[in-house]
Protein backbone atom coordinates (compact mmCIF):
# COMPACT_ATOMS: atom_id res chain seq x y z
CA UNK A 1 0.00 0.00 0.00
CA UNK A 2 2.87 2.38 0.64
CA UNK A 3 4.21 1.74 -2.85
CA UNK A 4 0.95 2.90 -4.41
CA UNK A 5 0.78 6.03 -2.28
CA UNK A 6 4.42 6.87 -3.06
CA UNK A 7 3.72 6.31 -6.75
CA UNK A 8 0.78 8.70 -6.65
CA UNK A 9 2.88 11.25 -4.80
CA UNK A 10 5.55 11.12 -7.51
CA UNK A 11 2.93 11.56 -10.23
CA UNK A 12 1.46 14.56 -8.46
CA UNK A 13 4.89 16.21 -8.36
CA UNK A 14 5.16 15.93 -12.14
CA UNK A 15 1.99 17.87 -12.84
CA UNK A 16 2.92 21.38 -13.90
CA UNK A 17 1.08 24.62 -13.62
CA UNK A 18 -0.78 25.61 -16.79
CA UNK A 19 0.68 29.13 -16.60
CA UNK A 20 4.18 27.66 -16.65
CA UNK A 21 3.42 25.66 -19.79
CA UNK A 22 1.96 28.74 -21.46
CA UNK A 23 5.05 30.81 -20.61
CA UNK A 24 7.34 28.08 -21.93
CA UNK A 25 5.26 27.81 -25.10
CA UNK A 26 5.42 31.59 -25.58
CA UNK A 27 9.18 31.47 -25.04
CA UNK A 28 9.49 28.76 -27.69
CA UNK A 29 7.35 30.84 -30.03
CA UNK A 30 9.53 33.93 -29.52
CA UNK A 31 12.75 31.96 -30.01
CA UNK A 32 11.40 30.37 -33.20
CA UNK A 33 10.39 33.81 -34.50
CA UNK A 34 13.89 35.13 -33.79
CA UNK A 35 15.39 32.13 -35.61
CA UNK A 36 13.24 32.80 -38.67
CA UNK A 37 14.19 36.48 -38.67
CA UNK A 38 17.89 35.56 -38.37
CA UNK A 39 17.51 33.23 -41.34
CA UNK A 40 16.18 36.02 -43.55
CA UNK A 41 18.87 38.49 -42.40
CA UNK A 42 21.61 36.28 -43.91
CA UNK A 43 24.19 36.95 -41.21
CA UNK A 44 26.43 34.12 -42.36
CA UNK A 45 28.31 32.09 -39.78
CA UNK A 46 27.32 34.35 -36.87
CA UNK A 47 23.65 33.91 -37.74
CA UNK A 48 24.11 30.16 -37.96
CA UNK A 49 25.80 30.03 -34.56
CA UNK A 50 23.02 32.15 -33.04
CA UNK A 51 20.38 29.86 -34.54
CA UNK A 52 22.17 26.82 -33.07
CA UNK A 53 22.28 28.48 -29.65
CA UNK A 54 18.57 29.33 -29.80
CA UNK A 55 17.81 25.78 -30.91
CA UNK A 56 19.77 24.41 -27.97
CA UNK A 57 17.85 26.68 -25.57
CA UNK A 58 14.57 25.46 -27.07
CA UNK A 59 15.67 21.83 -26.68
CA UNK A 60 16.46 22.42 -23.01
CA UNK A 61 13.07 24.09 -22.47
CA UNK A 62 11.20 21.23 -24.13
CA UNK A 63 13.18 18.56 -22.28
CA UNK A 64 12.96 20.36 -18.97
CA UNK A 65 9.30 21.28 -18.91
CA UNK A 66 7.36 19.17 -21.39
CA UNK A 67 9.37 15.98 -20.79
CA UNK A 68 9.44 16.73 -17.03
CA UNK A 69 13.22 16.39 -16.69
CA UNK A 70 13.30 19.32 -14.27
CA UNK A 71 11.32 17.16 -11.85
CA UNK A 72 13.70 14.20 -12.11
CA UNK A 73 16.44 13.50 -9.65
CA UNK A 74 19.42 15.79 -9.82
CA UNK A 75 21.73 12.99 -11.02
CA UNK A 76 19.56 12.27 -14.05
CA UNK A 77 19.39 15.94 -14.99
CA UNK A 78 23.14 16.43 -14.55
CA UNK A 79 23.91 13.29 -16.56
CA UNK A 80 21.79 14.48 -19.44
CA UNK A 81 23.28 17.95 -19.23
CA UNK A 82 26.88 16.76 -19.09
CA UNK A 83 26.70 14.08 -21.79
CA UNK A 84 23.89 14.98 -24.17
CA UNK A 85 24.17 18.75 -24.45
CA UNK A 86 27.82 18.66 -25.58
CA UNK A 87 26.81 16.22 -28.31
CA UNK A 88 24.03 18.57 -29.37
CA UNK A 89 26.57 21.37 -29.59
CA UNK A 90 29.59 19.57 -31.08
CA UNK A 91 27.88 17.52 -33.81
CA UNK A 92 26.23 20.49 -35.59
CA UNK A 93 29.41 22.56 -35.27
CA UNK A 94 31.54 19.77 -36.78
CA UNK A 95 29.01 19.34 -39.57
CA UNK A 96 29.13 23.08 -40.23
CA UNK A 97 32.91 23.06 -40.39
CA UNK A 98 33.06 20.02 -42.69
CA UNK A 99 29.97 20.36 -44.88
CA UNK A 100 29.52 24.13 -45.21
CA UNK A 101 32.81 24.81 -47.06
CA UNK A 102 31.82 22.22 -49.68
CA UNK A 103 28.95 24.45 -50.80
CA UNK A 104 30.99 27.67 -51.04
Protein architecture, described:
There is one protein chain. With 104 residues, the chain is an all-alpha fold. The protein has one domain (18-103). Helix content is 86%, strand content 0%. It is flat, with a radius of gyration of 18 Å. The chain starts with a helix and ends with a helix. The model has no long low-confidence stretch (mean pLDDT 78).
Task: Indicate the topology.
Layout: H1 2-14, H2 18-41, H3 45-66, H4 74-103
Helix pairs in contact: 2-3, 3-4
Question: How would you summarize this macromolecular structure in one to three sentences?
Answer:
The protein has 104 residues and is an all-alpha fold.
Structural domains: how many: 1
The percent range for strand residues is: under 5%
Global structural class = mainly alpha
Mean pLDDT, all residues: 78
Query: Over all CA atoms, what is the radius of gyration?
Result: 18 Å
- The ordered H/E elements are HHHH
Shape: flat
What fraction, in percent, of the residue positions are helical? Answer: over 70%
Overall strand count: 0
First and last CA, distance:
66 Å
Poorly predicted regions are none
Number of contiguous helices = 4
Q: How would you sum up the major sheet?
A: none
Main features:
flat; 104 residues; single chain; 4 helices; mainly alpha
